[in-house]
Each structure stands twice: as structure tokens, then as C-alpha cells.
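Appendix B, record 7
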Amino acid sequence: MEFNHERILLIFFLAAVVFSSLQPSVGRDDDDDCRPVQCRKGGPIVRFPFRLKDRQPQHCGYPGFDLSCSDFNEPILSLPDSVQFYIKQINYTGKFIHVQEQGGCLARIRYLNLSSSQFDFSGSSRDINLTIFSCPSSSGSGDLELDRFKTCLDDPDLGRRRMYYAMGSDWSIDLVPILSCTKMYNVSGLPSNDVLFKNYDLTLDWPPLICGDCDSQRKYCRFVNNSLGNQTECYGHIELPNRKTGKLH
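C-alpha cells (predicted):
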């Protein structure tokens, strides 16, 4: 049986179509599981390297980026030593998050150990050491000098009977009238003297190698299929939330 030139080309074309259909495509089946989500309408968008662990499979997030939703539908990041932060903003291009503790006071900052997490304080300063003093509420009444060091810390059992002040560990004790106060503890390696002020905006960075410049290209990020280690790749095109409703499409 003789084949003409057109039939040969047709056979090669059909074979190529069948072969390509058997290859993994850019739109993998697991992409639908990892679509961006929110804890609430208008809240921070959660996508790779983050994932909501109660709503997305494990492969949808990078190790150490697991989030959950609070009772108030705010995304929560749980770090070592049981320190939990409410995430106020996620900046995927700059690779940083803005976080606070519930109530706006970083009361558990002294337990924070970032060395075993994927995050670090934003900026270069991590050499602030503070000493926390507990004082009778009357000791700082009307004292503008002492009021400068008043923190947002409190003791629910004591109510307003005690006030808590943060002072540089290397400052002279003569700078402030704390004779009636009790030294509580030291906090070291902080990014600022102001971390214990009400509603302090704590910024944490994550490593720039995770997802590279995917967001700058307006592309999503994911694990490389069947790769060794935690290699990531860019794919697709990022969809923005609806401007009117704040919901994802």
C-alpha cells in the first residue's frame, strides 16, 4: 500500500497530538486544590507559599507557612513556642508580612524564637535588648518621663493596679524613677524599642529564594512536579479579587 506525502504528514500530526495529550500540562490537577483563599471577604489572600491547613492540602504550601483562620476569620500564623500572630497583610512581591497579637499587644514577644522558623525580623536591626519592670500604677501617675516607657502589657489578675515599663537593658537606672518597681525579665534581639507599644506593626520577612520573582511576573508559585527537595516554579497568571466585593473570582 502506497502512502502519499499528505497522508504521511497527517499520521505524524495525529501521533504528535496523542503524545502531547499524555504529557503533564501547566494546569495540573492539584492546581484546583491550591487556588487562593481568604479567611474572610476583603482579608489577606492566602496562596503559595502560604496555605490554610484546614482548607487546603499540604502540597499547597511551603513548609513553615501553614495558616489557620481564627474565630474572627483572621489568618493566624503559629510559630515555635506557641506564639501566634494575626496576619494583617501579606506582601508577596516584597516577601514580608505585617503581624500583631490579639488585642494589638505583642505580649508573648519574649517567647518568640524565629531561628527555627522561615521568618526573620524585617530590616537589619536585631540588637535591641529591653528590661521589663512592673510598677504600682501610682508610681507613673503624671510622670511624663516614666510614661515614655509605658508598654501595652498588663496582668488580668491585677487589673490596673500594676503598670509595665520597657527600658533599654544598658540604660542607667538613674534615668527613670523606678525605686518602687520590680524587675520582671529581659527581652533580647528585638528590632525596635517600640515593640511593646500598643498596635506596634511587626514586620517579618521570608527567604527571597522561595518562589523567586513569581509575583513580580504576576504569576502563581508552586512546587516543581516530581522534583527532589522543595524546588518551586512560576506558572499561570494571578487573578486579582473583585474591587467591589473584595472576593476572589
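Remarks on this record: Residues 29-123+202-235 form one domain. Residues 130 and 169 are 5 Å apart (CA to CA).
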